[in-house]
């Protein structure tokens, strides 16, 4: 870790570095589909209040948290990929 607490850049090549731009876009679309779909379904459940008890609500919140974490990791991967490709991250 750096002194400011941020993680040090990975020394391993980015897992997408060998892919073409179109392959990266296909990978990103594939990676986005699951968590975005899950968030949409859970937001619908929240909007309609279809919960039997607090445990059911807690499960929905946890699933939303997992989907959000997945999206966050994808953003980090995209930023790293863009940076390594010489773009602005």
In short:
The chain has 89 residues and is an all-alpha fold. The chain has helices at residues 21-48, 54-84.
SSE inventory with pairings:
Layout: H1 21-48, H2 54-84
Helix pairs in contact: 1-2
Structure report:
- The protein has helices spanning 21-48, 54-84.
- It is an all-alpha fold.
- The protein has one domain (21-84).
- Helix 1 (21-48) runs antiparallel to helix 2 (54-84).
- Residues 1-6 have low confidence and may be disordered.
What keyword list fits this structure?
89 residues, mainly alpha, 2 helices, 66% helix, disordered N terminus
Please compute the radius of gyration using only Cα atoms: 17 Å
Number of extended strands: 0
Which spans of ≥5 residues are poorly predicted at pLDDT below 50?
1-6
Q: How is the main sheet built?
A: none
What is the global morphology? elongated
* Beta-strand proportion: under 5%
Number of domains: 1
Mean pLDDT value: 84
Number of helices: 2
H/E topology pattern: HH
């Amino acid at each position: 870790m750096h002194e400011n607490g941020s993680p040090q850049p990975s020394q391993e090549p980015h897992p997408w570095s060998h892919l073409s731009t179109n392959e990266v876009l296909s990978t990103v679309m594939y990676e986005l589909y699951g968590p975005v779909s899950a968030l949409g379904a859970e937001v619908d459940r929240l909007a309609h209040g279809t919960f039997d008890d607090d445990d059911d609500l807690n499960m929905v919140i946890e699933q939303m948290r997992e989907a959000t974490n997945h999206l966050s990791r994808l953003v980090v991967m995209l930023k790293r990929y863009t940076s390594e490709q010489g773009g602005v991250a």
